[in-house]
Amino acid sequence: MEMLRLYDFLPSGNGYKIRLLLTQLGMPFERVEVNILKQETRTPDFLSKNPHGKIPVLEIEPGKYLAESNAILVYLSECTEFLPYDRFLRAQVLQWLFFEQYSHEPFIATSRFWISILGKSEEYHEAIKHKREPGYAALKLMEKHLTAHTFFVNERYTIADIALFAYTHVADEGGFDLTQFPAIQAWIERVKAQPGYISITQESTLCLTSL
Amino acid sequence: MEMLRLYDFLPSGNGYKIRLLLTQLGMPFERVEVNILKQETRTPDFLSKNPHGKIPVLEIEPGKYLAESNAILVYLSECTEFLPYDRFLRAQVLQWLFFEQYSHEPFIATSRFWISILGKSEEYHEAIKHKREPGYAALKLMEKHLTAHTFFVNERYTIADIALFAYTHVADEGGFDLTQFPAIQAWIERVKAQPGYISITQESTLCLTSL
User: Fold this and answer.
1) For residue A50, what is the nearest residue in chain B, using CA coordinates?
2) Does domain A87-192 bear CATH number 1.20.1050.10?
């Protein structure tokens, strides 16, 4: 197999999902930093890779690209311990992946982007305020689930945990207070204790970065 | 196998995705109407089925529930002609499913809900205005793709088409003008020509409704 290439932006939680899984799978990859703050995802060259103009993008072999972080997670985890083989359990993983993209990321990740990546909490004050209620609703649902479960699906660490961990464990950078969610906090520690864990802005030891 | 039961709301595009696929698969199901306008998704009974309080929910066997429309589509289409067997093609289907939930539905479906389901376009005037640009961006991306392709993945009708069709073909009910998108319009006709097609508020001929 060709070496995988990941078009990525180091502070991105969506990029981190892929970096973390690849590292835990022991799959070496080449990481290409694309600075979204400098509109590098809007160049004709990047748009030829992903017409949607977003990172992460996985180049599976030369010219063969896959976008959408959670689709990449499924692609990479098939037939591994990170995705259950049972059809219903696999569907439950997908259920959490869609929950993450629809009901979690647009509120928690977006707030973090404005506050901690752009550093413009004043300018986005009003928009951030509107993200509070739906963001906390997502955290409450996670807390409820994790009060009765060690991980999201089948009491085992899967890509559902990776997808939800990416922006949850840095939710404070988006102004969300996690101290009121003890089950989430305990789960965060369980994820951090997984073999091969790397932190969000840590480059994988398996990766070679091209700048 | 037990008879499948679908908790659904007839005007919902997310519910329609499941109704359409089940009908095209020839799988009979029992449909339970849950009126979201009367907060029927917020009752303790419904929340015991889906803690997230949303339809559609598929009851696969008594007490075994699956939520998130696109996760249900994948669950039902595995090992059928509606989901490719090839790993990369399957990942491309997922890519479009995540695109639909993150970059399409929150703008186009939400506008339709406010304008045509609630009938409150005046009250939501400001919010609707903010949905215009991202909604049209999603349609433009679809138009570009469909200019070169008959269907979203592998030139064949799959659940990627079902997921995107659900709210696209009624985008005008959300105030979006489709006349400027000829490739989308031609694709809509191709979807409507598929065997077993039913329209959005049409109950499946295979379904038994409990009210």
Assistant:
1) B141
2) yes
